[in-house]
Amino acid sequence: MSRFSEGWRAAGLMTHVTTLPNNYGVGDLGPTAQKMIEILKQANLTFWQILPVAPTGPSLGDSPYSAYSAFAGHELLISPELLIRDKRLSESEAASFQVPLTDQVNFPQVLKNKAALINLLFSREAKTLLAQDDFLDFCHDHGAWLNDYAFFMAAKDDFGGLPWTKWPNELKWREDWALAQHGERLFKPILRYKFGQFLFFQQLWELKRLFNEAGLALIGDTAFYVNHDSADVWANQGLFCLDKNGLPALQAGVPPDYFAKNGQLWGNPVFFWRAHRATGFSWWKYRLSHCLRYFDWTRLDHFRALAGYWAVPAGAETAASGRWQPAPGEELFRDLAQQGPLNIIAEDLGVITPDVTRLRQNFQLPGMRVLQFGFGQDQPLSLHAPFRIEPDNFVYAGTHDNNTTRGWFRQECLVSDQERLSYLAGYPVSELNAAWALTRLAWLSPASVALTSLADLLNLNETARFNIPGTATGNWSWRATRFPDSRILGDLAELTAISGRDNQAHPNILTY
User: Fold this and answer.
1) pTM tops 0.90, yes or no
2) What are 28-43's pLDDT values in tens digits?
3) How far apart are CA 344 and CA 341, in angstroms?
4) 355 included as an active-site residue
5) Is 401 a residue of the active site?
6) Which residues lie below 8 Å from residue 496, measured CB to CB, with a gap of 6+?
């Protein structure tokens, strides 16, 4: 029986960790992340959904979907306040890393600050780290990815930030003698990167434990493709479509759609699925099990690529010249299902063909519906219209790729759409109450899980938009300067109860 056939209903809040307010320039895994427990409890919610927590940087546009590793965590999210609590850092030392609270993350500044902070801690603990049982246990437990990641980052620093394809050939092609020689030479910086991961995953595990003890759940996010200049591609070159020089032979992207008329050319190498099949999909199995160890659910970005993916020839200027290629999603999920519950949300947005829907439904994976997409001339037939959404979906007013609802109403919503929204809401809708109107429609929809964003809960306009797909700069930096007040949370709690999404009604929400 499908998990959605028994009236399973819940609700949650979506916002990335970096958006949370604190005094250190960027949201992190510390007290304000833990405060989300209180926020969710006050609003009768169950889920907090975030974006990928993988390590990114300015050269990657600071995008959480473009990272140096599919497994590692971003040191930027390590909390100084928890380090103070754990007596690794003094309050006076932490004060030097504080940044005035604004509604934008200054990534260069906070990255510099956080690296200096962790370097300070490492300088104190480096001599004793290899005698600390908890650190050694962590390194052993995560060795399948940690050794390659730490080596990759230390080598990248050593070579002035050059991509791995421009490293010396013996290291580029991972000759055993070169790995041993450079590993010994870079022993200390490699240990430093392992230390950073140790701190990150300690704090993430604590956050998950606190959420679960409160009867709440964390939803993570798994980017489908990995960055070409990453530890994953360098360490597993045979699993990706690369040419004789190690460069992508076929690039990932999507064809023209709602977000971009020429499609989106991401530049990531596509997977060499024949090699993955030969290993029993071991890399994918480990990747998803790693994510579901630290999160109760994960959203699998670009799910449609497991049924068929858009492959663009190397050197193409836009994604329009790509072609659809088949993918072994059915085989992969059959193997994954043997490991345990598939708590995976399938991001099935964009060009969705019947084979994508069959793949999702065959494995009882919830899909995604976005109410902002449910308006326009085709609304009566749109799968995103609130009255057509089916129970086996998570519904959002908008995602991180959409405008805020207030911004959408101001900038993108035609007069006819505004009138339709008022009709569906049952009262006049304006810029001032559009976010609440869409949230209410999401909560009252048949979808099993409904989520609203922190920006929408705060009723912010387009200045709080998080990302504009197809643009390389100016994204991912918005952050909140306050949390919703008790009145807003009280209104949402009442809506959650009336719509049958009350957290207390579903004690098995974490594993259902």
Assistant:
1) yes
2) 999 999 999 999 999 9
3) 9
4) no
5) yes
6) 11, 43, 44, 45, 443, 502, 503
